[in-house]
Amino acid sequence: MPQRPKALEPSRSARAWFGAELRHWRETRRLSQDALGALVHVSGDLISKIEKGQRPCKADLAAALDAALGTGGVLSRGLEHVDRDADKKPSDVDKLDVSTRGSRATKPATLSPPVVAADERRPIGPEVDAAALGSAMTLMSGEVRVACRTSDGRISFVTMPRRKLLRSVTAVAGATLLPAPGASSNVPPTKPWSAGLLASDVHPVENFRALRRSLVECDNFLGPRNVVAEGQDHIRQIQKLRQETSGRDRQDLMQVQAEYAEFCSWLYQDSGDFRAAQYWADRAIEWSTVAGAHDLTIYTMARKAQLAGDMRDPLDTVDLAEAAQRIAPPRSRLSAMGAVFGAHGHALRGDERASRSAFDQAFEVVAGPDVDETFRGRWLDASYVEAQRARSLSALGNHQDAVSGFESAIRALPASYRRDRGVYLARAAVAQLHANGPEPAAVSGSAALAIAAATGSARIFTELAVLDAKMQRWAAVTEVAEFREALDNVMLHEV
Q: Which of 60, 85, 110 is the last residue of a domain?
């Protein structure tokens, strides 16, 4: 009996992502490892080791694989990220003091997601490249990427073994913030195959959807690091169940699998791991297409536009958003999603007129009845559009109007949307700094920081890194000093 293929974790590293992508394309073309190896004149064993992340792939082999698999150059482009992210140096942990006996400057109080270095030679903002933001915290392996204040005041990344970080965090904070391998997490395991979770009188599709809704609620309040492993585990369980079903049941399970993939993409996006987010978004589009879930395909396409915006890629943002709008029902929430995310892409390109027009279109849609009978995008309302418009206004340099927009959106947020409040506060703080000065900006930044520390949202920390870099000149202002001290207390320090 052939051995079951090893499960791959594309979020573990750049090389692991490349291996997972290679396996995906090979299996899509229905080729064995030996058959693919024969096409590109290498052994099947080498293909196996590349897929498992055990061996690197050379550029000429990646090009040959692209040609053999008809990927359109996906592997060659992906190899650029693998080479760029390759860690050829010893672990950065040797540079850090993680003891609890030192001064405040050596005290790690919690795990911080990745943020972009505040380097005067490469300012944070629209100019930052996607690879820098995509160098993300690994949530499910033996090492994690954490934020660190360097000796010259910048914020950068370091790699630390999870166990060593866990010991230092526990000693300082008195509580485990990230589970060690094999330990229980903050959220109790929700194995779908456990007794009592899959109700015998409810269809498995509905059971898995109910479980997904509970994970969405946890994510809203606790952040991505507490639920991503569960989401991926549910996908594995659905895949097993699909092997035992046929017909409409298997198609419906495929749609739920696609819904989970889109959710995992979101979790990784909020964690700052854009490469993994792209991987799961691509799987969601593929699986939703197989399932015939046209609305989910449109929704994920719009979400890919949002992801491209977070990656500061204005052209992809606009193109993906326009693609979503072309296939969405006119005047639907799905079309409004495309308009909103496309508007931000126009703002990143400096096209104020196109951005304003797209937002006007989105406001018009959410003000009227939804013509789409599906539930996708029902969360998109006027206050959400206002918050996104404020972000784009800030990118265009209209900071005063951006502040007003953020304040309006924050007032309209439900209390349970804690992480969104943190994102809006952090973005508002940057706009406030330009419009109203450092004091109100620091106050908003401190409020956002408390939420960032609790949820582990890289989107919040990224905005706070921008704020921190811009406020260095006002370091003597009381509110600024308090904010920067609080930020220091939730990250490691280079000594």
A: 85
* Through-space distance between the first and last CA atoms of the chain, rounded to whole angstroms: 55
Rounded to 5 degrees, what angle do the CA atoms 86, 92, 94 make? Answer: 145
pTM of the model: 0.67
With 0-12 CB in 10 A as exposed, 13-18 as middle and 19+ as buried, what is 316?
A: middle
Q: Are residues 43 and 28 in the same domain?
A: yes
Give the residue numbers spanning the domain of 259: 188-292
Positive or negative torsion for Cα 441, 446, 452, 455 = negative
Distances (CA, A) of 273 to 86, 136, 310, 449, 461: 15, 4, 11, 20, 13
Q: How far apart are CA 363 and CA 406, in angstroms?
A: 16
Same domain flag for 193 and 282: yes
Verify that 192 and 225 share a domain, yes or no.
Answer: yes
CA 368 to chain centre: 31
| H-type alpha helices, 91-203 | 130-134, 162-173
Q: In this structure, are residues 489 and 100 in contact, taking their beta carbons and an 8 Å threshold?
A: no
Same-domain pairing of 165 and 234: no
Q: What is the pLDDT of residues 176-223, one digit of tens each?
A: 233 333 333 343 333 333 333 444 556 888 889 888 888 888 887 777
Q: Is residue 490 part of a domain?
A: no
What sign does the CA torsion over 325, 330, 335, 340 have? positive
**Strand pairing of 155-161 and 492-493?**
unpaired
Tokens representing 243 are: 């092997």
Whether residue 227 is found in the same domain as residue 279:
yes
